Amino acid sequence: MTQQYSTIEIYDTTLRDGSQAEDVSFSVEDKVRITRKLDELGVHFIEGGWPGANPKDIEFFQIIKATPLQQAKIVAFGSTRKAKNSAKDDPTLAALLSAETDIVTIFGKSWTLHVTEALETTLEANLELIEDSIAFLRTKGRQVFYDAEHFFDGYKADPNYALKTLDAAVKAGAERIILCDTNGGTMPWEIQEIVSIAREQCSVPLGIHAHNDAEMGVANSLVAVEAGVTHVQGTINGIGERCGNANLCSIVANLELKMGRTALGEGRLTNLRAISHYVAEMANLLPNKRQAYVGDTAFAHKGGVHIHAVQKNPLTYEHVQPEQVGNHRRVLISDNSGRSAVLSKMESFGLDVSQDNPKVQELLGSLKNLEYEGYQFEGAEGSFELMLRKALGTHTPSFELLGYRIIVEKRNTLEESVSEATIMVKVGDVVEHTAAVGDGPVNALDHALRKALENFYPQLKEVKLLDYKVRVLTGLRGTGSRVRVLIESGDHKEKWGTVGVSENIIEASWQALADSIEYQLMREKL
Question: What is the pLDDT of residues 201-260, one digit of tens each?
């Protein structure tokens, strides 16, 4: 039986492999900030990039040398020497040394196909490239991790040669051998078998570097650990080339919560959701709400039966406690909801309402009717809370609409259209009448509403419209179809969603805009 190790080394390659994802580009400052967060999370190694590959990576390694870290070790990444160069004259190896990291990771070829077709050299010469490169870096005082690129495909094509490449790396002094599923197409049962064979032959700790092209990145990494691997590589949120890398968020949660292994250290797993969202923000990507453990919907409950059961015992529909990974339980309100869901939401909003209060059943009926008309409150809890408080008589509106008018003018085909909104609102006994222009009719209406209210409520200057979505609910009536508008707003404290529905897109937008402002003002009063 393969020996199992309780502590697993976590090697993060978000800054290098992750940055190769489509639509992702980190600035030097982004990389430094992410490094600090990863260090706080508790990862053991952070791969900073490929020195010499681009100016950003060169600058990063210069800056990070002066950046104090708690525990993580910075790693420089590169390849074996070129066949035409000696190790001491190879620019790639020289760049690795110039990064001045204690540890370097280099990759080499394990697949005969790559040796003969990509490198265009002989199998024996490739073994020399691996051995010479590692031995040279070792003479310069560096610890060397060896990434056996395409190892699993290489093993399936020629097992003897693939294992010889590992032998060459170990002989030269590599301290970790990382088996790479570079094309991401290997199945878990293949990983299990091949890692077990490599583990019997290899005298240094093994690692796994899995890609996600067959949606097996996390599974393959965990199976490799079961087969004896003690070092796992991946990226936060699984970002990376093509379909991405193995997702470290899922890997470390599974290691600690499901497999009884130590990955980050005591108490650090609670930072998992925070680092997931932080990296998404730095990468300018929307967080994947359905991502396991850390996503917004990972512990969200919508069905009435589910909600009722979870309120009795969370184990009924939650495999772990959300707080263990820094997440939280959410009850979604929809036409599937029952009395338990409405009561749960009231409690979360600080509303003390008894179960037998007739308002609860009235609200449930109203909710189902509104969702039948096209309203959706799953992403619009701001509108839902306002609806609850109005129904219970605990909310007094901060302003009253007396009317609005919008003019959209386009003089000729070459000019952009111009939108102007005029609005009249009443705050207390004061009537405010203002006008504003915008990039479109909704933008103009937003500007006019804020202009009218900011004299009374200066805190509205902090509120930003973060996202605006329009959904056509049915196309049977063509341009007269009903639409749903979802708006996400936020300030320096939090974000909230509001909704509007109408056959008129301006009216639907007004409903959502008005709720977004009203919700923020309501929070100020609570």
Answer: 999 999 999 999 999 999 999 999 999 999 999 999 999 999 999 999 999 999 999 999
The vertex-247 CA angle with 258 and 489, nearest 5°, equals 105
Q: What is the CATH number of domain 9-282?
A: 3.20.20.70
Binned at pLDDT 50, 70 and 90, residue 1 comes out as very low
Q: Can you tell me the distance from the alpha carbon of 176 to that of 103, in angstroms, rounded to the nearest whole number?
A: 11
Instruction: Say what the pTM is.
Output: 0.75
CB 219 within 8 A of CB 247: no
CA dist., res. 111 & res. 114, Å (int): 5
Maximal C-alpha separation, the chain: 90
CATH class label, 374-394+462-526: alpha beta
- Evaluate whether 104 touches 79 at the Cβ level (below 8 Å): no
Q: Give CA–CA dist 278/259, Å, rounded.
A: 26
Residue 196 phi/psi, 5° resolution? Answer: -60, -40
8 A C-beta contact, residue 194 and residue 155: yes
- Identical fold for domains 9-282 and 374-394+462-526, yes or no, is no
Distance CA 393, CA 359 (A): 10
Strands 231-234 and 418-427: unpaired
Up-side HSE of residue 39: CA atoms within 13 Å toward CB?
A: 17
